[in-house]
User: Fold this.
Amino acid sequence: MAEGQIISKALGALLDIMTSDKVKEAQCIEAARAIIEYEAPPEVFDLTYDYLMGVARGEEQDTGLKLEALKLIRKVEAKRVVPGTAKAVDTVAAQALGRKVAMAKRRLGLVRDGLIH
Assistant:
């Protein structure tokens, strides 16, 4: 970690849980989730990311735990794709704006042609 970088007590406790060999892997992944889903110093984030990749690549690892690790990794690797939402259009206001734009264009054309000042 960068010199002088202070981490919170909660973040330190989560790191202790995640890196403990006395804690079940599922609970370590939960600690990693609590770290990676929120803002953390880059070094802590990198350590957590590396831990999750280790779980995901572990040949002897339970498939369910691999999936949990990979879902967390994907969550931070890519922006979530959210479908667009439909928006109501005020047709009366849109038509009024269209008329104003058309009148302004017509007036600009008349000024350009020298017909009005």
The CA atoms of residues 18 and 28 lie 4 Å apart.
